Amino acid sequence: ESKIITAKGKEMCVVVNVKCTQYNGISYGVSSFYDITAKQKSLNEWERVFDSVHDYIFVIDNNFTILKANKAFKNIHYLENKEVIGKKCYELIDGTYELCKDCVALKPIKSKKNHVDEWRDPKTNQYFLVSVSPLVDETGTVKSFVHVAKDISGLKYIEKNLKSSLNTQSNLISIVSHELRTPLTAIKGGIDLIERDYHANLN
Fold first, then answer.
1. Is the pTM of this model over 0.70?
2. Among 41, 59, 25, 46, which residue's Cα sits nearest to residue 132?
């Protein structure tokens, strides 16, 4: 692929094919150009959409090699595009040379079906809701998978506080109930004594 400027000053994106051949003992180079300007423009627009999403998006192949990543994913790792593409996902995410523990991608890679799960980053203690979807090519073959990871750490914090609040409320109800039962038990005991005395006097 290359960019050229036409005689009218218009920039074009083209695919250049060069074939070498011989005729009468003389070598020739035959070039052909295919205009992909419209296709490239469409790809650039998609790239802008891809990068405008704040969730972390990246695409891996069956060997966990990163094929593409959006701006948010690259920024969280403080890396440029050339430092991300071609790397194994676990190298960047977990900083290791082996699959992450509880890897979310394992199930969809084996089943070729969509999968959604929660995942906690052990390094930052952040929680993510991760969806992994297979990408099917024109032949119906699954060769890559798109990951979308949404940071739900704030929601998990709210959930934790809510559970703590509910536990506190439950404990408070138990204490109040106990405190109410204690004097009632004493009162009931007193009434029973009075009734026994009353019946004794009658007899």
1. no
2. 59
